[in-house]
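Pinned message: reference record for DUF4097 domain-containing protein
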Amino acid sequence: MKKLLFFLALASVTGVASAQDWKTPYMTKSLSADNIKSVFVNTSGGSISVKGGEEPRIEVYVVGNNNQNLSKEEIAKRLEEDYTLDVKVSGGELHATAKQKHNITNWRKSLSIGFRVFVNKATETNLNTSGGSISIANLTGNQNFETSGGSLSISGVAGVIKGETSGGSISVANSSKEIDLTTSGGSINASNCSGRMKLETSGGSLKLQGLKGFVKAETSGGSVNGNGIDGELITTTSGGSVSLSEIAGSVDASTSAGSIHVQMTRVDKYVKIDGNSGHVDLQLPSNKGLDLDVRGDRVTVAMNGKFEGQKEKERVVGKVNGGGSLVTVRGDGSVNVSL
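Predicted structure (tokens):
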């Protein structure tokens, strides 16, 4: 087993540079001979980045609290006195840890210790930080990561992806297979992804673009905007409007505090719209056989094709073009359906 300990000795290692900002690593160590397959990183006060497809190496970044301009000698002294900074490589596993040795009562002496890791694409991760963002890119395999105080960024990742943040936004793009992402305090932006997706935020908006597969997207405190989604979409918000365009497949959309606008280019199994506050606009493809169950304060249905059923001020129930997929709409305000 090969073990690398970074303490005061960092100052004497070749490649050490002054940690003036996040653009300059405090230290860089090659991993090209280690055939890394798994990365485990845990830091109490910095960001983590893991990227596949580049020259394997690990970079250590150390800055003072509030980006204090510290010399490398001062950083090394604080590391030796107050922190454990440890990197181990064994059996294809990289373990990088940065933590305080004791409670630092003078916050001005605290450090932010972050890691950037470059590995082969076929690498799994397990990442945790309590005070920074997490970024992963160009990887395959299982990815598990969590932060209590930063954002999550995922790009070009294929595999089982599970991430959580308690205080930041989430961005995921060009990724696939299984995606499970949660935030308690930010927005979620998902684009050009496929597979099975679960996206959840308690305090922000949802922006969904170019998704394919099964998507469950929920927010308790923001709007939902989606475009170019193919598959099955289940989305709900307790605090905003829902706007969906160029949707192909099945949709279940609801809001407790806003309007709903949905444009369908193809209907598969079902369409279910529930608007408890505000009006509902639903555009369906024409010349499609559908079963309609539309109810609201004022219901307007503009259709081409043969209709069999009942039309009233507050509801339209019946079959269009002989019937087919079920379309259910509920609204407390006006409801407009066109097909």
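Pinned by admin. Summary line: The longest helix spans residues 72-82.
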